[in-house]
Specification:
two-stranded parallel sheet, eight-stranded parallel β-barrel, about 15% strand, about 40% helix, globular, about 475 residues, alpha/beta, 14 strands, TIM Barrel
């Protein structure tokens, strides 16, 4: 094959950006929407940057029930987001101005089935996404839709223990049936689960199991994960049966680690951790659980999940068409697993939240995934958060963001030259939104500034940052001019 063909981004490369409904839509209780597992995430100014909203043991049945009705104790930023539900037409114009070819968003499950178990969907919720996708298409942008992005109806967490129950799988199938039939002529690209491997770091977001509702949380988590794999296989099967040309992808958060040093013990410890990370894509892209999972279960005292041969067949016969992943940086592994000491890579820098900046790691991961699975790849999240405000002239000179993206796009081009079939890039998030883990506005990712503070105060005004014009030019030149 002619090597020169790898020296640039493909002519039809999809440049865009990514959002999640629960972080920017707001309107959490409007037009029939029910409360979701994201709507109970709190902001606390004293511990905001130190405490995660995703630690499993924070989400007990009692705490969930309290937050469901709480009106005074906590502030819940995701309930307001950036008011995109009401401003989507204006906000999409900024993306159109930048020249976006595509936009990734999600469909809030609780906007379609408020409690998750209704017989009929909420028409006002369905109509909102009709309007949203129509607007994207009019603006020349292809929708990429995540079916489940940490947006399970809270009711299913409380009554069904989230993804632990097969009933949840039944309700999810109905959700899938409704949205695929409704949007089959508007949405070509779908992702089943956002970052399905975050069950280890964001267990409640991912699986929605109340921590005290089970005796063995680790074993329950793998049973729930199996149900998610079944849900993904069902969605792919449904799509193929419809025969409309839709494509199904899967998504992980990059979890591939570097060894801390070249000690063979470090190498082996890193290999084992990476092996567990590959398990998710092995199932979704190859259709089989790896045999190494048996030893992992034994050594970690995890009860094997319950399955049937029909379930394994469903998974095997309905693998994904493309794979996607989020990349914010890399990590290192130590063989000293008992100490759980966090290792810091001395060769790379980090932002004030500790998120590292490792562009070369992106090329490494792209090659790893492509060599292993030989499927087209989309980078569906990439970015770094910064604390920033407009200057006296109302401008935001974010050269640090431009530098971050410039170096990562350079490594994407290197990966294409390596032979990786990279077809799309979605920076997170092109307009400032509420943070997933810390529920703050202070950690800003966007090319467009939004005038809201951590408590939702502000005018909501949108301001183009310097990076807005830079990324616009990147898209205009199809990634050839990055300076």
């Amino acid at each position: 094959m002619n090597k020169s063909s790898y020296k640039m981004f493909p002519e039809n490369f999809l440049w865009g950006g990514a959002f999640a409904a629960n972080q920017f839509e707001g309107a959490w209780n409007e037009d029939g929407k029910g409360i979701s597992v994201a709507d109970i995430h709190v902001y606390d100014s004293k511990i905001n940057r130190l405490k995660s909203n995703t630690k499993n043991d924070e989400f007990t049945m009692q705490e969930l029930a309290f937050r469901k009705t709480d009106k005074d104790k906590y502030y819940y930023p995701k309930r307001k987001g950036i008011n995109f539900y009401h401003t989507y037409k204006e906000d999409l114009k900024y993306l159109k101005e930048m020249g976006f070819k595509t936009v990734r968003t999600s469909i809030a499950w609780s906007r379609i089935f408020p409690n998750g178990d209704e017989e009929s969907p909420n028409e006002k919720g369905l109509q909102f996404y009709d309007n949203l996708f129509d607007e994207m298409i009019r603006d020349g942008m292809i929708p990429l839709v995540t079916i489940s992005h940490y947006e399970m109806p809270l009711n299913l967490s409380l009554t069904e223990k989230g993804w632990l129950s097969k009933n949840t799988l039944i309700y999810f199938k109905k959700f899938v049936d409704v949205i695929m039939e409704r949007y089959k002529n508007k949405v070509k690209y779908w992702i089943t689960f956002n970052q399905i491997n975050t069950m280890f770091g964001e267990g409640y977001n991912s699986l929605s199991i109340p921590y005290d509702s089970v005796d063995d949380f680790a074993s329950a988590s793998f049973q729930a994960l199996h149900n998610q794999f079944l849900a993904s296989a069902y969605a792919k099967k449904k799509m193929d049966e419809m025969n409309t040309g839709m494509k199904m992808g899967c998504m992980v958060c990059n979890g591939i680690l570097y060894p801390f040093n070249c000690d063979p013990k470090e190498i082996m410890a890193t290999y084992k951790k990476n092996q567990l990370q590959y398990m998710f894509l092995d199932v979704l892209c190859r259709g089989k659980y790896p045999r190494s999972l048996g030893r992992y279960f034994e050594e970690n005292h995890i009860q094997p999940f319950i399955y049937t041969e029909d379930e394994l067949k469903l998974i095997e016969e309905n693998t994904c068409d493309f794979l996607t992943f989020s990349y914010y940086g890399s990590g290192v592994c130590s063989s000293d697993l008992e100490s759980n000491q966090k290792r810091v890579n001395p060769y790379i820098s980090a932002n004030e939240w500790g998120w590292v900046n490792d562009p070369i790691g992106l090329r490494y991961v792209l090659n790893e995934y492509y060599d292993r699975y030989q499927l087209p790849i989309m980078i569906t999240e990439n970015g770094s958060g910064f604390d920033e405000k407009p200057n006296e002239e109302g401008k935001i000179h974010d050269n640090y963001r431009i530098e971050y993206f410039r170096e990562h796009i350079k490594q994407m081009k290197e990966a294409i030259m390596d032979g990786v079939e990279l077809i799309a890039y979605y920076p997170w998030a092109p307009i400032d939104i509420v943070s997933c883990t810390s529920s703050e506005m202070t950690k800003r990712y966007g090319f467009v500034y939004v005038d809201y503070d951590d408590f939702g105060n502000g005018t909501g005004q949108r301001i183009r940052k310097d990076s807005f014009y830079w990324y616009k030019h990147v898209i205009e030149t199809n990634g050839e001019e990055l300076e």
